[in-house]
Amino acid sequence: MDTTMAKPIKVSEIVVKEKRERRDPYTVDEVSSATRIPVPVHDTPRSVEVVTKQVIEDQRVIRMNDALRNVSGTFQSSTQGGQGGSFMIRGFVSDLNIFKNGFRDDSTFSSRAQRDILNLESIEVIKGPPSYLFGRSDPGGVINQITKAPLRNRYYSAELIFGNYDLYRPTIDIGGPLNESKTLTYRFNGLYEAAGSYRDGVRSERIFLAPTFGWELGPRTTFRFEGEYLYNSTPIDRGLVAVGNGVASIPVSSFLGDPTRKDVVNQGKATLTLLHDFNDLFRWRTAFRGAVAGDNYFSRESNVLVGDEVDGILNLAQYRIPTLAQSYYLQNEVHGSFSTGPFKHKSIVGVELGREVATASVSSDFGGDISIPGAFSYINIYNTADRLFLDTPLTKFSDTKNVNDILGFYFGDHVSLLDNLHLHAGGRFDYFKQKLVNYPNDLDPNQTEDSQTDLAFSPSVGLTYQPWKPIALFANYTESFAPQASGSRSITGTLFEPERGKAVEGGVKFQFFESRLRGSIAAFNIKKTNVLTADPLNGFAFSVATGEQRSQGVEFDVAGRLAPGWDIIANYAYIDARITQDLLFLVGSRVPNSALNQGSLWTTYYIQNGPLKGLGAGIGMQAQGKRNGVFQCTDPANCQAPFELPGYVRMDGALYYRKPELFSRTNLLAAVNFTNLLDQRYFTGTQNFREIIYTGAPFTVIGSVKLEFF
Fold this sequence. Notes:
Number of strands: 40
Strand content: over 45%
CATH architecture: Beta Barrel
Number of helices: 4
Helix content: under 10%
Largest sheet: 22 strands, antiparallel, barrel
Shape: globular
Structural class: mainly beta
CATH class: Mainly Beta
CATH topology: Maltoporin, Chain A
């Protein structure tokens, strides 16, 4: 009789666990990006934030950068006109710190277009310098995209997303076993997207295909193949321009270029991963990722606002920049999960080899004489019908090949000294060699070659203490390094040491309501040194490594379930990022694009019972304070005049209907999402130019209908 009683108790526990996983869609228990092996979030001595698949679906975002609004102090500051973009984390801008499944996914060698969310399971953001495991990087943090895995059980879904500005985006997500024993599995995500825009005349097109296959070679060995192909065609959009000390008073719909010229990207990625468990203590991981991207950049875009700003004549430059970018990385790692006496270890030792190659040829009519009327294309910013587009001859300004060779050795150990005391320590040795070849062009008939080699060690150490289980106190110290741009020289011809970052961080994590609600508060101080700046003593033609920037602040993040059907994710950041040492830029001035105050809130509720069960609604906001548009200078005659981007508050909303078992083994999910409900005029960032100010979309409506089959 006792045996019969024991069985239902065990079954009951399993059922409760499954329900808990389903009802906490905005949180996760473990992350792998902070240590490159899975560790509980609560035990990790770093600021770790995760944007889950459910958050992405509820907010109906279709680009990775839009999902980052849910992470404190993290956002895309520049779209690079519609390309991969650069991101700010804790006041520092970079396009180096983007990864996918632990492989570099930067905007130069890997992803030449805006990143899609279609095949993402989640996005993990680890704050602070990440070089201790990821190599060269800026000190703000790392964004790691986690992709969807092959499925052991059948799943098929089809979704149609549509909206104003002629958005049309059908997608599919299918997967399951390929044989009876389920040792062969697959998943396939695909989409076609055609869209207009609130920007006059702008139309874009996108195709994204992502097949994934899994193979269980044996009880201890698995193999996975992941592929991606992206076709993206869109005009280069440089936004609006500054007039005086602010943004020109013109509609955000004004496109200040030629929307018929497109940047066309074809890029593909392939990842092979082999996992083998030697025993219950040690695992071997070897993984290879190759990426190739062809980018045909063809544009007529903003150059310089000339004459009287009241006249609003913006000269336009033509560019043709064919680029071929390739990157190849091989990672070999040993993961350990073992004990030494009373201490429990989760450890990693790894080596990474990589090569990055990019060839680019830049042709432009940028050198045209703007003083001669009719010799240069232009557009009137106040009346875009007043324009002149000329197909003037192009001058080849550069023809280059950039090759990077990477060798990194990294190690880390997460040690549970006690059940409530956890230590993480690790570091990475990096060898990084750059080679830049300048081929003959229209301005220089000579071929030159320039190379630079950097060596660096980047350590990290952190401690987490839990005085009682729901509360965790943590602190850490980390460093980063980022090689200088190849070809940078002082007037004496000497090379420069890499940029170095050093950071200290401390805070508290909490988890309440049986871990359904999780959050953290963190304070940090980061310093970046060896920043290159133009040499004002030698005509600004050379560089000096005298720059220093400092960012300090406080961040707050919370996510989880407040009550049955009621989920929330929110954040706030106070970030003071400033120039602390420089010969050209004004010491004490704020770093461009960095607001002192920024934050967001998103919450949804679904009716749980009764005839209206399945109906839901969401409401949210996103806010940023005012920001500097360009670096302020000690010598205004050699710099752009300063201007500010105004602060803003954007309100969003959504209505949902979810009907499980609409038909046998078929679910229905329908939603209408509203972005910028109050139709606020706002600006998302700049590229440190008065003629490049990126705009936020006005009031937007997006509908979606999804059917799931099991």
